Amino acid sequence: MSMRPDHKALLFLAIIAGLGAAVRAARAISATPSQQLALERQMQAADSARRAAAKRSDNSSKPSASRGRAARTATIAGQRVASNAGGAPHRDYRGRLDLDVASAAEIDSLPAVGPSLAKRIAADRMRNGAFRELAALRRVKGVTPKLLVQLDSLVSFSGVYKPPQPSDTLLAVKPRRKR
Fold first, then answer.
1. Percent of the chain at pLDDT above 70?
2. What is residue 143's predicted lDDT score, i.e. its pLDDT?
3. Residue 123: exposed, middle, or buried by beta-carbon count in 10 A (0-12, 13-18, 19+)?
4. Could you list the residue range(s) of the whole structural domain that residue 42 is in?
């Protein structure tokens, strides 16, 4: 008895799905305790970071000096705009700032980068897309080879496209100095 082509295709897909499930089950069973502990530590860190962010947003609407320049908020026409949705800077696992998704306020927190250069970097990324590598940062006016050397170990590039947000080019409103 011959099978119809659509039945053959369904049988093939069912076999592939069964094999995939078997591989996942085998990997879960053979996982070493150190891998399981590492995963549990990562989940605990994510949970504690989420709780801390929720606690910060509940505690005070006023930015704290201990949070740093990147997490401060900007005020425009009476509206408060956070530096990003979570309030935490866009950093990779090594603690380097991801320039492909960071806001201008976060970029301004880097050494040797001022507010106007941070705005130019964020605006260039919105116009021309993600940088993806350190050399592409040269397309921004004011970025010198010396600055690239300084930033090399402090920044990373994910190549992720992030739709422009109002906070991308806004910087924290700094209090005026009294003379």
1. 64
2. 92
3. middle
4. 5-56
Residue 50, domain member (yes or no): yes
Q: Which residues of the chain have pLDDT under 70?
A: 1, 31-39, 56-89, 92-93, 165-177, 179
Torsion of CA 146, 99, 43, 45, to 10 degrees: 50
- Total number of domains constituting the chain: 2
Quote the CA–CA distance of 118 and 8 in Å, as a whole number.
58
Read off the CATH number of the domain in which 131 is found: 1.10.150.320
pLDDT of the residue at 95: 78
Q: How crowded is residue 176: how many other Cβ atoms within 10 Å of its Cβ?
A: 6
Q: 144-156: per-residue pLDDT in tens?
A: 999 999 998 888 8
Report angle CA 74, 161, 154 to the nearest 5 degrees: 65
- Which of these, 89, 88, 108, lies nearest to 170 by C-alpha position? 108
